[in-house]
Here is the input.
Amino acid sequence: MSSKNNAIYIEHMLICIEKINSYTEGSKEKFFDSPLVQDAVIRNLQVLAESSQRVSDDLKRLHEDVAWRDISGFRNILVHDYLGQ
Here is the structure.
């Protein structure tokens, strides 16, 4: 995978983080008080996690301090186990 593709996926991740911060204004209460905000945050977490799975293994090895596997696992929970069953 090219560094250009990595840059695109990292940019997607950063945009998702910015959106989540914007939607919640850093407040846990803002998240819990609005189903609309919850849906928006969950969707952006899903996109962020999906983008993280597409980052090259070379880049992941260069940034082993990032919990890539945990992010990927979180995406699977969001997509497949959202009812907690």
Q: What stands out?
A: The mean pLDDT is 90. The radius of gyration is 14 Å. The longest helix spans residues 3-24.
